[in-house]
């Protein structure tokens, strides 16, 4: 049909269809960015999901870089100040090295065999076990009792809290010097109190059992502020509604403490048991100031004090490293067992 023979309104209909098609493309927006190229070939539409996928390919590298910046310095410090000295200590335990002699002789596991065969090993291990157990139990039990007492609205409780916490921030040497005067058999505070009630005063510096008792009490006194503050903070998060419900149900104080309060303090108790155990095994200053490992030879000598004696008194650095390595392995095994017990309790 010729142009002059087209029906009236045909041009108008073509224009309407063309505008409708262009509007459909505009409505589609970014969903269809291109249908064809100047060459007439079809190209895949570019969608926001495709753009996000392309950006996501580069995102892990940014995450890794951020992780390295945040964690890298901490890992480096751990390697430099923890794991490298630990590896050097284990390596040194395989040598017989006298500090005064620059030459070190490789002896393998001879130092370990000597430690197990020595006569004083059993006494030193027993001293370490008694001191550590008494320090952990005494610090945690007394800390919990004081925290429960001072959690009440009592007059002057802030002063008492500060008094209990003060020995913890004082050096162990200073606490040991103060305890020396307290336990002095001639003019000490304990001697005066026992004499007033007619009790014979034991000589804490000549009897091994009383010396261990004195050192343990001194360390518990110093460490009490730590367990007290941790338990006091944990008591602030205890659910009071459960305690009130137990009281309404007629539960006794002991039942409420055992069934309601202690389960809520279990994570805190687990944390304290590990930290206090580690700190107790590392006690040196109190023993060195008060008894120097005596009396009666090894009356209060623990494994950490044996490390000091062998390394800096007998100048046997290799043997001292052996004792330190054995301590590390024992502590690692105990901590692993505690973690397993805690995980089992949480699952139940």
From TrEMBL:
GO terms for cellular component: plasma membrane. Keywords: Cell membrane, Membrane, Transmembrane, Transmembrane helix, Transport. Residues 125-338 form the ABC transmembrane type-1 domain. Belongs to the binding-protein-dependent transport system permease family. PROSITE patterns: ABC_TM1 (PS50928). It comes from the Bacteria. It is a multi-pass membrane protein. GO terms for biological process: transmembrane transport. Pfam families: BPD_transp_1. It is found in: Cell membrane. This is sn-glycerol-3-phosphate transport system permease protein UgpA.
